[in-house]
Structure formats: C-alpha cells, structure tokens
C-alpha cells in the first residue's frame, strides 16, 4: 500500500549582504582555489614520484 506525499514547490530564500562582506567572501574563495591548485600540484608530484620508483618486495 503506498501513500501519496504532498510535494511543495521549492522556496526561494533572499538574503542581504554588504559589499565589504561580498568582497571578503570572494577573496576567501580565491585563496581557497589557489590552495586547492597548490595541493593538487603537490599531490600530482607525489604520485609521479611514487610511480617512478619500484615498490620494495618483501
């Protein structure tokens, strides 16, 4: 036996943000994106380095 579920239309949430807050958030986003790029590059270098060496056999 199934029950019918009422579906509501999505609601829109409006918020206010000051220009200085928006600028700060954009700056933080840019810094995080740069950090992600740095970490990806570091990880890729480690993967490349690890694939270039032979694993030790026990």
Automatic annotation (TrEMBL):
InterPro entries for the chain: DUF6026
Name recorded for this polypeptide: Uncharacterized protein
Keywords: Coiled coil
Pfam families reported in the protein's UniProt record: DUF6026
Superkingdom to which the source organism belongs: Bacteria
Coiled coil regions in record: 15-49
